[in-house]
Amino acid sequence: MKKILSIVLATLCLSFIACANEQIISFEQLPQTAQELIKTHFPQEQVSYVMQERDGLSLEYEVRFASGQKVEFDKVGSLIKADCGTQAVPEALIPEAVRAYVAAKFPNAIITEWSKDDRRWKAELNNGLELEFNSKYEFVRIDD
Predict the structure, then answer these.
(1) Domains in the chain, ordered, with CATH?
(2) How many CB atoms lie within 10 A of CB 3?
(3) Rounded to 5 degrees, what are φ and ψ at 131?
(4) Rounded to 10 degrees, what is the CA torsion of 135, 53, 66, 81?
(5) 43-56 average pLDDT score
(6) Is 71 helix (H, G, I), strand (E, B) or coil?
(7) Which of 93, 83, 142 shows the shortest CA–CA distance to 113?
(8) In angstroms, rounded to a whole number, what is the distance separating the alpha carbons of residues 54 and 20?
(9) CA atoms of 78 and 34, how far apart (whole Å)
(10) What are the pLDDT digits (tens) for 19-32?
């Protein structure tokens, strides 16, 4: 019985700790690299909030704009996701090889989301297709 009670208490404590790992922070608390990226590539956007998320040793930041667009960064401020809704992700955020591939294969499409997932990059197009690229930005496959 004591063992069960201990497990339940430990689970509750971990649940409370996990919930406390997300907090709203100020824009100025973002890594400098992330601040510069936002100022350079999203100058017209108004920041709605900045969320800092801790998960074990991992630390990430999410910046949500008033327009609904959002960008996510790792602990040093490197971009891991840009979700621009129905708008195009700023071209400068997408490697030339990926832009060239999309322009050649899908000339009427725009990239609305650019994200890193493990070792692969994903480009979501406004036509609903999701393209996967390896770490060298070489096309891997289509995930529709």
Answers:
(1) 22-81 (3.40.1420.30), 84-144 (3.40.1420.30)
(2) 7
(3) -100, 140
(4) 0
(5) 96
(6) strand
(7) 83
(8) 9
(9) 7
(10) 559 999 999 999 99
